[in-house]
Amino acid sequence: DGGITQSPKYLFRKEGQNVTLSCEQNLNHDAMYWYRQDPGQGLRLIYYSQIVNDFQKGDIAEGYSVSREKKESFPLTVTSAQKNPTAFYLCASSMEAGALHFGNGTRLTVT
Amino acid sequence: AQSVTQLDSQVPVFEEAPVELRCNYSSSVSVYLFWYVQYPNQGLQLLLKYLSGSTLVKGINGFEAEFNKSQTSFHLRKPSVHISDTAEYFCAVRRGQSTSYGKLTFGQGTILTVHP
Fold first, then answer.
1. Which of B42, B51, B106 faces A42 most closely, judged by CB atoms?
2. Which of A35, A74, B2, B68 is the most exposed place for a label (fewest CB within 10 A)?
């Protein structure tokens, strides 16, 4: 079955360390997205990519970086510059004009 | 830019009762509208979407929503809820251009709790 795979499901890191969250899709979707979810704040867009080797900043891109070297993959790096990195991170993909399909998320805890 | 307001942060309801989750949006251009459901520690699942055409949209699990352009609303309804409907529900909006991917803007979510 096609879908989006995010790994790992839970991730723990020490403050000051960079960490990379994986997102892979086999839906053949062109566009991919990263959202951050915090309790009571809904989902906020971090970065999105409409095509390989191109991506745009979302509303809260500071302290994050992405790459899109392959259509199927859109990894997110949470850098040490991100002041409050502990959150639930959701990856999604879509076809043109379509709804977003989401992965099951990665819960990142930084202490 | 688009914005979304979900008017209730929590909605408690008894099993088999009807429910309405309210969503209002703000946009100066035409929009596409979506409702998603999220169960604990999982991703979001699409319930239904409005792109064009009939303003009454039917989705999965017996949910439906009505697009009201004059009131800029897209309220979600279900005539009889089940315990399994307990979850968080998100309304989302994006620019209504069929040739553009566009990004979704989400509301802050409504937690629906169904009591036996």
1. B106
2. B68
Chain B CB contacts of A92 below 8 Å: 43-44
Whether the CB of B97 is below 8 Å from some CB of chain A: the reply is: yes
Kindly list the distances between the CA atom of residue A106 and the CA atoms of A11, A76, B66, B108, in Å, as whole numbers in the listed order: 7, 11, 33, 19
Q: Are A80 and A19 in contact (CB under 8 A)?
A: no
Q: What confidence tens digit (pLDDT) does each residue in B56-113 have?
A: 999 999 999 999 999 999 999 999 999 999 999 999 998 876 555 667 899 999 999 9
- Looking at B1-116, list the stretches that DSSP marks H as alpha helix, in order from N- to C-terminal side: none
Q: Which helix (H) or strand (E) holds A109?
A: strand A106-110
Cβ proximity of B107 and B90 under 8 Å: yes
Using a CB–CB cutoff of 8 Å, tell me whether B9 touches chain A: yes
Pick from A85, A34, A78, A82: nearest CA to A55: A34
Chain A hits for B105, Cβ within 8 Å: 45
Q: Do A40 and B9 touch (CB under 8 A)?
A: yes
Which of B97, B112, B114, B116 has the alpha carbon at shortest distance from B21?
B112
Q: What beta strand segments (E) does chain B contain? A: 3-6, 10-14, 19-21, 23-26, 31-38, 44-50, 56-58, 64-68, 73-78, 87-95, 105-106, 110-115
Phi, psi of B21 (to 5 degrees): -110, 125
Which helix (H) or strand (E) element contains residue A106? strand A106-110
Whether A26 shows a pLDDT value over 70: the answer reads yes
